[in-house]
Specification:
Blueprint lengths: L2 H17 L3 H14 L4 H13 L3 H55 L5 H26 L4 H29 L5
Helix pairs in contact: 1-2, 1-3, 2-3, 3-4, 4-5, 5-6
Length: about 180
């Protein structure tokens, strides 16, 4: 059994003592739980509540401060991990963009027989940015519970569809001048 699992077990024992209103035993269990795992927020919280029930206000206040510091530390660690994920997402975006751009350029040159290389680069670049930007933004925004982010994901989808239609008409007019 790992220290975290054992800490959880001792926290649960403390909870059982609290239901029987045996706060001295509960405090001992919670203290051992936080000794095993200093980051066990539930055990810290229950320790503070049990100390408060026993009238040990100073000890409960000390535990409250420890709990607040742990919560602040965990929030900072979460924020830092999100920043690193975002950074790697941006790098992934540009790698994905370059890959799709290359694929579309080859498609332009091989299948459409494009002789105007500048037009091929422009068409492939804009289309790649639209496709990759939509995929990146849509999945980044849609994967949230926030209704506003989901609305923006759908709005971006509408812009992407409109841009793809306009871009395809511009390219077709360039390739086949008779298309209206």
């Amino acid at each position: 059994m790992t220290a975290k699992e054992e800490s959880l077990s001792w926290k649960n024992r403390g909870d059982a003592y609290v239901t029987k209103e045996e706060y001295n035993h509960a405090i001992s269990c919670y203290e051992y739980a936080v000794h095993l795992d200093r980051d066990n927020l539930a055990a810290w919280n229950n320790l503070g509540c049990s100390l408060n029930k026993m009238g040990r206000k100073e000890d409960a206040y000390r535990v409250k401060n420890i709990l607040e510091n742990l919560e602040r530390k965990q929030k900072q660690e979460l924020k830092a991990s999100r920043a690193s994920v975002f950074t790697s997402d941006i790098l992934l975006f540009f790698v994905f963009l370059a890959t799709v751009w290359g694929i579309l350029l080859v498609y332009w040159l091989y299948f459409w027989g494009g002789t105007d290389l500048r037009m091929g680069f422009a068409w492939a670049g804009v289309l790649a940015f639209i496709i990759v930007g939509w995929i990146w933004a849509f999945f980044l925004l849609w994967d949230t519970e926030n209704i506003i982010c989901r609305f923006f994901a759908l709005l971006i989808t509408g812009f992407v569809i409109g841009a793809a239609i306009v871009l395809s008409r511009v390219v077709l007019r360039k390739i086949i001048p008779s298309v209206s």
